[in-house]
Write a structure and sequence with these properties.
Elements lengths: L1 H18 L10 H4 L10 H15 L16
């Protein structure tokens, strides 16, 4: 039981130690991150379809841009 626990502890430390070596992207790597495929909503057609369903259910349109609240104060 003891050796198994020690091995699991060492494995956890090794995995967490690898996280500390992460560095932010360099300027020449940021071009890859700006590609449309790298966004959370990489599928433009799927995003449009999702917004259509949301607007149909909420009986409203938009809501993703700048605007006022529902009180009429813009």
């Amino acid at each position: 039981m003891r050796p198994m626990l020690r091995a699991a502890g060492c494995l956890c430390l090794a995995v967490l130690g690898g996280c500390a070596a992460w560095a932010p992207p360099q300027p020449w790597e940021k071009g890859q991150l700006a590609r449309p495929e790298m966004t959370m909503a990489g599928d433009a057609l799927g995003e449009r379809y999702g917004q259509h369903i949301y607007a149909s259910k909420e009986a409203a349109s938009g809501g993703y841009g700048v605007g006022g609240g529902g009180c009429g104060c813009n």
